[in-house]
From TrEMBL:
Its main location: membrane. Catalyzes the dephosphorylation of undecaprenyl diphosphate (UPP). Confers resistance to bacitracin. This is Undecaprenyl-diphosphatase. The keyword Cell wall biogenesis/degradation applies. It catalyses: di-trans,octa-cis-undecaprenyl diphosphate + H2O = di-trans,octa-cis-undecaprenyl phosphate + phosphate + H(+). One of its GO terms (biological process) is cell wall organization. It comes from Simonsiella muelleri ATCC 29453. The gene is uppP. The lineage of its organism: Bacteria, Pseudomonadati, Pseudomonadota, Betaproteobacteria, Neisseriales.
C-alpha cells in the first residue's frame, strides 16, 4: 500500500472516532478533511465503513449491557422495552436513507453544504440548550423511555441524513428538546448508533462490493482501528463531560468551523472540491 494513503486513512480514522459521538458531524468532518487531504473513496465506502470501528467502541464500552440484551431478550421486560425503543428509533432514518441516500450523496456531500449545516446546527444547539434550561427533564433514565420518546428521537435522527447536521447532534438535541435528561439523550444516542451504523456500513459495502480491491480493504482496516481507539476515548470523555457541562461549546465550535469554511469559499482562498 502507498504509505501516504495509509497516513491519510489513519488521520481520517482518528477524525471519525473523535467526531462520531460529538454533536459536530463526523460525516461532515470526513468530507471536509477528505477534500483537504485529497482522499476520495468510491461511493464514500471508506467513510461509511470506518464508522463501524467507532460504533464498536460503544459496544465494547457497554459490553455488559449488550450481553444482557442478547441473553435476556424475550425474557426480561426491561430488556424487551429497550430493544423495542431502539427498533422504533431506528426505522425513520433507515427508511428515509434508503429512499434518498443516492440523492443526498450526489448533491450534499461537499464541504460547502457541510459548512452551512454546521453553522445552522450550531445555532439550533444554542437555542435548544437555552430552551431546556428552564424546563425540568421528564425522562431521567434510558430504562424509563417510552416508545413515543424513542419515536421522537428517531424522527430527529432523520435530519442527520444531511451531512454536517450530525447524527449524534440531532438525536441528542432532539431527545433533550422532547424532555430527555442530557445524559439519557447522550447514552440513547450511543446505543442507537449501533444498529444504525452497522446497517449503513453493510448496505454500502454490499452495494459497492464490485469496486473493492485489496488496497481498499487495507486502508479500511487502518481507518477502522484508528476510529475504534479514538471512539472509545471520546465516548468515555463525553459521558464525563455531560455530567457536568452542556453542549454549548460544541455549538460555538460548529459555528466557527463552518464559518471559516464558508469564508474561505466566498473569498476563494480554498478551492473546495465538490
Amino acid at each position: 500500500m502507498d504509505m501516504i494513503l495509509v497516513l491519510k486513512a489513519l488521520i481520517l480514522g482518528f477524525i471519525e472516532g473523535l467526531t462520531e459521538f460529538l454533536p459536530i458531524s463526523s460525516t461532515g468532518h470526513l468530507i471536509v478533511f477528505g477534500s483537504l487531504l485529497d482522499f476520495h473513496s468510491t461511493g464514500k465506502v471508506f467513510e461509511i465503513a470506518i464508522q463501524l470501528g467507532a460504533v464498536l467502541a460503544v459496544v465494547f464500552e457497554y459490553r455488559s449491557r449488550f450481553t444482557n440484551v442478547i441473553l435476556n431478550f424475550g425474557r426480561d421486560r426491561e430488556v424487551n422495552r429497550f430493544v423495542v425503543n431502539l427498533a422504533i428509533a431506528f426505522v425513520p432514518a433507515a427508511v428515509m436513507g434508503l429512499l434518498f441516500s443516492k440523492m443526498i450523496k450526489t448533491y450534499l456531500f461537499n464541504p460547502v453544504s457541510v459548512a452551512m449545516a454546521l453553522v445552522i446546527g450550531g445555532f439550533l444547539i444554542l437555542w435548544i440548550e437555552k430552551r431546556t434550561q428552564s424546563r425540568p427533564a421528564k425522562v431521567l433514565t434510558v430504562e424509563s423511555m417510552r416508545p413515543r420518546d424513542a419515536l421522537m428521537v428517531g424522527l430527529a435522527q432523520v435530519l442527520a441524513l444531511i451531512p454536517g447536521t450530525s447524527r449524534s447532534g440531532s438525536t441528542i438535541m432532539g431527545g433533550m428538546l422532547w424532555g430527555l435528561e442530557r445524559k439519557v439523550a447522550t447514552e440513547f444516542s450511543f446505543f442507537l448508533a449501533v444498529p444504525m451504523m452497522i446497517a449503513a456500513t453493510f448496505y454500502d459495502i454490499i452495494k459497492h462490493r464490485d469496486l473493492f480491491t485489496m488496497a481498499d480493504a487495507g486502508l479500511i482496516g487502518v481507518g477502522f482501528v484508528a476510529a475504534f481507539v479514538a471512539g472509545l476515548v471520546t465516548v468515555r470523555a463525553l459521558l464525563r463531560f455531560v455530567s457536568r457541562k452542556n453542549y454549548v461549546p460544541f455549538a460555538y465550535y460548529r459555528i466557527i468551523f463552518g464559518g471559516i469554511i464558508l469564508l474561505t469559499w466566498v473569498m476563494n482562498w480554498v478551492n473546495w472540491s465538490e
